Amino acid sequence: MERLDDGELRQWLREDAPHGDLTTRALGLGDRHGTLSFAARGAMRVAAIEEAARLFELCACEAIVRVASGRDAAPGAVLLEARGPAAGLLLAWKVAQTAVETASGIAGEAARILGLLRDAGFAQPLACTRKNWPGGRALAARAVRAGGAVMHRLGLSETLLVFPEHRAFLASNTLASTLAGVRAAQPEKKLVVEVGSVDEALACAHAGVDVLQLERFAPEALAALRQRLDEARLHPLLAPAGGVTATNAVAFARAGADFLVSSAPYFAPPADVKVVIAPGRNR
């Protein structure tokens, strides 16, 4: 799995220590050497461990990944080992730990939702939204992939998704012609429209929308919409969004969703990574 580039990782380090590590410098520890390890305190789906290793390398240390991103780690499993000057180990330590814990929490929740779906016999994908923290999109996308899910959209520049907030600026009687114009302007893109009611969904389906994003639909409402679309011989993809979590994912799949759209993994608790730093032999 391709890791984030060095420029972004260096920015993480600059944010945490824009003028160096004052404490380590004041203690005179910089030239001493040591070792460091990351280990899983509990079972976890690992993510961003390659970024963690590279952070140590950017700080003049050596690092070895023991459990790759996308793999499950048992309690106590060593995830990463590093060695080098104390200045480098201490500079990268907390940034690397936080990245792994945060990303692994996201990956773990995505994997949990998918596991519930698969155990119930459903194969629908889980697509995670762009509702992550500003500046953290790249790390969030890495975590989502490590959890076995996909990104719903990486940003406004790549997909056509018409929200009610867009339609607020349009005359109500121009929806069909407006959507036709959007399709003509971007013929290679699928047209997705978010709807909040069955009537809106049917109107957009008749207008030829490819995907209906169903905002705050209950599973029962999705099933009823699916039936009405089938009766009308209309076949847009149905994607429930807003409030999709581990508690209702199977119900949405059973109701006939083609894929699930969720922000829930971003709000999962972080994984817990144990860090051990010890002095080593100076070179």
Fraction of residues in helix: 40-55%
The tally of beta strands, per DSSP, is 13
Query: Treating each run of at least 4 consecutive H or I residues as one helix, how many helices?
Result: 10
Any idea what the CATH architecture of the largest domain is? Alpha-Beta Barrel
Core attributes:
single chain, 2 domains, four-stranded antiparallel sheet, Aldehyde Oxidoreductase, domain 3, TIM Barrel, alpha/beta, elongated, 283 residues, four-stranded parallel sheet, 13 strands
Can you offer a commentary on this structure?
- With 283 residues, this protein is of the alpha/beta class.
- It folds into two domains: 6-105 and 269-279, Quinolinate phosphoribosyl transferase, N-terminal domain (Aldehyde Oxidoreductase, domain 3, Alpha-Beta Complex); 116-267, Aldolase class I (TIM Barrel, Alpha-Beta Barrel), CATH 3.20.20.70.
- The protein has helices spanning 6-16, 22-27, 49-58, 86-119, 137-146, 164-167, 175-185, 198-206, 219-231, 249-255; strands at 33-40, 44-45, 62-65, 72-73, 78-85, 126-128, 150-151, 160-162, 191-195, 211-215, 237-241, 260-262, 273-279.
- The strands form four sheets. A four-stranded antiparallel β-sheet has the order 3-5-1-13, covered by helices on one side. A four-stranded parallel β-sheet has the order 8-9-10-11. It has a three-stranded parallel β-sheet with strand order 7-6-12, covered by helices on one side.
- Strand 9 (191-195), helix 8 and strand 10 (211-215) form a beta-alpha-beta unit.
- The longest helix has 34 residues, at 86-119.
- The model has no long low-confidence stretch (mean pLDDT 95).
